[in-house]
Amino acid sequence: MFLVDQLILMAAILLLIGIISSKLSARLGMPVLVLFLGTGMLAGEAGLGGINFDSPGLAHALGTMALAMILFDGGLQTPVASIRRVWKPASLLATLGVLITSAITGAAAAYILDLPLLEGMLLGAIVGSTDAAAVFSLLRNAGIHINTRLKSTLEIESASNDPMAIFLTVGLLEVLVNDMPFGLGLLQLFVQQMGVGAVVGLLVGFVSVHLINRIHLVAGGLYPVLVAACGLLAFGIAANLGGSGFLAIFIAGVMIGNRPIAYQRSTFLFHDGLAWMSQIVMFVVLGLLINPVSLLEVWREGLLIAAILVLVARPLAVFPILKLFGFDNRQTSLVAWVGLRGSVPIILAIFPLIFGLEGAELIFNVVFFVVLISATIQGTTLPLMARKLGLTETPPPEPAASLEITALDEVDAEIVEYRLGDNTRAVGRRLSQIALPDGTVVAMITRGKEVIPPRGSTQIMPGDHVFVVLRSETRPFVDCVFAEQANVVSYELPDRPLRLKGSTRVGEVLHSYGIALDSDETLTLDELLRQQLTTTPHEGESLQRGSISLSVLGVLGERITTVGLSITQDEASVSTELTPPG
């Protein structure tokens, strides 16, 4: 048997154990990273597996690659709207917050471990950032729902604060090992890391979107691979130019994920799976690297440092920053508590070993212990803390699933699957009574195991699965009709007018969108316009009904075939009571 055969078997077994442990995570209420690390420790030389792994360089390489893919997936799934909403507090937490946390923890570590101040500060810098993989996984799998602004702040901070921790770690190592000037040298390194990383991420992301949509690949399965290559390109260019590859790949992911690209859904699913595999590989390898016995030698010191990090340093960094942006005490307390440490500190703890710093092994063991304590205690208590602080919310309706037709440049349409609940506007009505945007087609309805051909007389029932073919610009309108709603709906029209057939009745517009036209509900839009317009209708004419503007978009003879509806008031929104069917 060749060595590679044994390695493949070993890798498969560890991956399977990691995947199964992720299933146990939700039941045990423990973060997956703790279970993955535990898997690696059990498989290691001092554990049941007896695997002898002692290669910090290889662990660093695998960890860096895995972390890059995790951040890239986080960027792909981060809406620009979330960044715009919280970029100010998140960016301050990711820079100034990390600096304050690192300084307080570092000073305490220097005293507790009897280290020189700069070496203590190095340890503080290593544990200064929250972990994107841990926070993303915890917030998305903990079974709780918190305020969107709060959740976005935590996710954007955790995804963007790694470059600051890396900069502080590398900078302090350069000062300690290579005698780099402490002041100006660190400032230049900071500007270079952040500036180059941001510029490269923006440029590569912009170019990647155009490349993905214009290149014609023979195999559709190559598009997710192409997207991954673009992300790694951003990381590689930035890192080789002296910038932050982690910042670059995250920004490139945001740029690509927020633009329509070919095979987008397939790409997102591919990268979600790749990010999970990266987490498993990264944490298992890092678990293999540690000897559990060595943790027992530093548990007292590690526990003290972890307590200061969690209970003192993180809150002192978070409270002043978030108070500036109107976060209340309860929200600020939760942000301070969800400061999970994860893979990044462990990967950074390998740096002193690579640099050959004296006492590097002590730093690595203490950091590993702090990460285990932080992830275990903070991770497992997040749902409890959120409930105690009164910050949990009712889960939002599950979004409709988009099903791809083919490559984006071939068909400008998508198939969306809606699962209808009791509070859906369309429930209880026939298809002919629903005011769908012009050009939108209901392709299929399933009810249980039965497939129902859609006809005008087909009545929509709760629990139905409705498959709708639509263009991307009409998606918000169709969502208003078929997506699960609360009892009170505040609906904001997009910039484009809602295109409706002239045969659509006024009452159908009211029931489908909550838009009242103050006319007889049995009138069609064609009849309403022809009654109100003084001349023979022609394209371009419009009628103002309060804040609603109706415009003639299509005419056949004297009949109006297509009508545009738009809101002209400043707030451009309509709020309406929705009475559930029945």
UniProtKB/TrEMBL annotation:
Subcellular location per the Swiss-Prot or TrEMBL entry? Cell membrane
Q: Which UniProt keywords apply?
A: Antiport, Cell inner membrane, Cell membrane, Ion transport, Membrane, Potassium, Potassium transport, Transmembrane, Transmembrane helix, Transport
Pfam families, alphabetically? CorC_HlyC, Na_H_Exchanger, TrkA_C
Q: Which organism is it from?
A: Halomonas dongshanensis
Q: What is the protein name given in its UniProt record?
A: Potassium/proton antiporter
The reply on keyword Transmembrane is yes
Show the PANTHER family listed in the entry. K(+)_H(+) ANTIPORTER NHAP2, NA(+)/H(+) ANTIPORTER 1
Q: Which residues cross the membrane?
A: 6-25, 32-51, 57-78, 90-112, 118-139, 159-177, 189-209, 274-296, 302-322, 334-356, 362-384
Main subcellular localization, coarse class? membrane
User: Its membrane topology, per UniProt?
Assistant: Multi-pass membrane protein
Query: Can the keyword S-adenosyl-L-methionine be found in this entry's annotation?
Result: no
Q: Which residues form the RCK C-terminal domain?
A: 403-484
Q: Which PROSITE patterns match?
A: RCK_C
